[in-house]
Every structure is written in structure tokens, then in C-alpha cells.
Amino acid sequence: MPEKLIPGKLTQEQSVLELADFDEVVRLYRPRIFRFLMSSLADRDVAESLTQDCFLKAYNARHQFRGESSLSTWLTRIALNLVRDHLRSRRMRFWQKTRETALDLVDISDWIPDTSVSAETACLQQERVKEVWKAVEQLSRQQRTVFLLRFVEEMELNEIAETTGMNTSTVKSHLYRALRVVRERAGGEQQ
Amino acid sequence: MNTNPNSNLQVAAENELEPRGEVAASIKLFHDAMHSIADRATERPVPSDWLIPARRRQRSGQRRMILAWSCAAALCFSVVPLTVHTAHPGIAPHPPTVFNAQPAAVEQPTSEDALLEQIDNEVSESVPSSLAPLSELDSWNSTTSTTESSIHTEKSNVTQ
């Protein structure tokens, strides 16, 4: 019986083999890619479209994947390029203008915290999440990417460096600045 | 014990990269919220035609790209000759007027008869429509005068 594959814990050979079963790749990595795109763009519909684009690109380029990086890093890099292209496109600039007056496309109130806590605590938790969300939206594109990869996708600094193509010290610098903004916005510690 | 000030600074900076206290708790809640929202959005199994919209977008993007490059190429082909033309003002596309004067002089010796015929044609053609009945009358007069003259000659012949 073949050993069950765990994303992010694969050897080079396993990564290449894993890509052969593309349906399984989609099943395993779709939530992660969607989450990263949704938190980067704050738009569920665009995140869904770009998730599809990401997997289509990965499928078309599957023969070029040599397993030098993990499959997760490779897919995240494709997703990151799609985010970059999307933000650069004129259409997105138009949407950015309309979004200023539009609704918050990813509504944090959709998230229901642990039901074991009291209603008051749940409300307070939602407020705290909203504050972090607002702070993340204030960040520059690179700071936001590094912050999300570190604290939402739980990637190590060297993995972030590999995914984004930055060196580790640049990643640290962006993370430091991003955290400063989040600290100022989300309260608590001041510099 | 590490007494290197640079390494102490580095350790301090590394510590700054890890949130603590309330901020850490807020970031953890944010992490949970993002995971929860994304998991709920992707909990349904992927349908078989899931990638079809992406394929369609890719094809339309390729078509747009081809169209854009075609337009750019057409624009280049139409603009480059003009640019070359204006970039070399010393090279005149047409011969100067000095050269044009000579063929005009050569054309001068046409026959006078041909010239008169041409003028006659132009004049005869330029009868306005309002004067057309008069011109018909003229032709009628000319025919009557010729018949009168023929009658007159017949009479003279008879008398002779």
C-alpha cells in the first residue's frame, strides 16, 4: 500500500511523482492556494478564478517541475505571480477604484469563532481579527505577501525567500515593517 | 557567553520578527479566521469541469495577445516608412522642379489643328442645358438655310 502523501513533507522524487496524479494535487493544495489568494486580494471570486488559473498553469508546466523546490512552494510561486499580474492589470486598477466604495468582499463576520466562548468574547475576537485585516490591507504588496506567508501559511523565512525570490534579509526587513504596522493598528505593544 | 554586540542586535531583531502578547493572539485569530473561511469555501469536491473557465480565459488572453501584436506590427509597418521618409530630408522623393520644366517644354510643339479641334470640342461641350433649345434652333436654321440654298441653286439651274 503506498504511503499517504503529506503536503510540504515530500522528497524531491516524491514531489515529481505526486504531480503525476494531478487530481490529488488539486485536492491537497487547492485550499492552501485559495486561502493565500483570498487573503492577498480580499476577493473570493477573484481568488477562485486565480486558483483555477494557478492549477491550469501548473498542469501545463508540470513537465518543467523538477522537484528542486517543494510542490507547495512551486504552486505558491505561481499564485504569487498571478497576484502580481492581476494587480498590474488595468482591469484591477478599475476594480480597485470601485472597491473603495464597495462592500468588503471578504467579510470577516463570516467567520464564527469557537462556539465554546461567550457571545461577548466572540464579538471581541471578531473585532481583533478585523483590526488585523485592516492593518494587512494597509501594507505594501511585498510586506503583505511576506506577512501572509509567515503568519497564515506558516512558512519558514527561507521558504518565503525561495517563494518570493527575495533574499532572507529582505524577507526579514519586510516582515519587521509589516509587524510594526500590525502592532500599531492591532494595539498592544508599541515601538 | 556571546558578547558580540552585532549578534546581540541580530538576536533582538529576530525577536522583533515574532509577535508577542496581544498582537500574537490577534494574529493567531486572523490565521484561524482565514483558514476557516477558505476551508468552508473549498470544502465542496472539485467538479470535473473546474478548469474549463480557466482554459477559456487563457485562450481569450492568447487571442487578445495575438491581436495586440498584430495591431502593433501593422502600426510599425505603416509608421516606419513615414519615419524613414522624414528622417532623410536630403533625399527627395520627387525630382526637383527643374527637371519637371523640361518635359513641359517638350510637350509644347503640338499641331495647331489638334489644338483648335480640342478648343472646339470644349466650347461645343460647354453649352448649358438651359441653352439647348437655342442650339437646336441653330441647327434647324443651318439645315433650312442649306435647303434654301439648294432650292436657290435648283432654280438657277432651271433658268439656265
Secondary-structure blueprint:
The complex is a heterodimer of chains A (191) and B (160).
Chain A: H1 12-20, H2 22-41, H3 44-60, H4 71-88, H5 90-99, H6 119-138, H7 141-151, H8 157-164, H9 168-186
Helix pairs in contact in A: 2-3, 2-4, 3-4, 4-8, 6-9, 7-9, 8-9
Chain B: H1 5-16, H2 21-41, H3 52-87, H4 97-107, H5 112-125, H6 132-159
Description:
The complex is a heterodimer of chains A (191) and B (160). With 191 residues, chain A is mainly alpha-helical. Chain A has two domains: 1-105, RNA polymerase sigma factor, region 2, helix turn helix motif (Rna Polymerase Sigma Factor, Chain: A); 107-191, Arc Repressor Mutant, subunit A (Orthogonal Bundle), CATH 1.10.10. Chain A has nine helices and no strands. The N and C termini of chain A lie far apart (55 Å). Residues 1-5 of chain A have low confidence and may be disordered. Chain B is mostly helical. Among the domains of chain B are: 10-45; 55-88. In chain B, 76% of the residues lie in helices and 0% in strands. Chain B has six helices and no strands. Chain B is elongated. The mean pLDDT of chain B is 70. The chains are: A mainly alpha (191), B mainly alpha (160). Chain A binds chain B through residues 23, 26-27, 30-31, 34-35, 38-39, 44, 48-49, 52-53, 55-56, 59, 106, 108, 110-113, 125, 128-129, 131-133, 136, 151-152, 154, 157, 172, 175-176, 179, 182-183, 186-189, and chain B through 13, 16-17, 19-23, 25-27, 29-42, 45-46, 50-51, 53-55, 57-58.
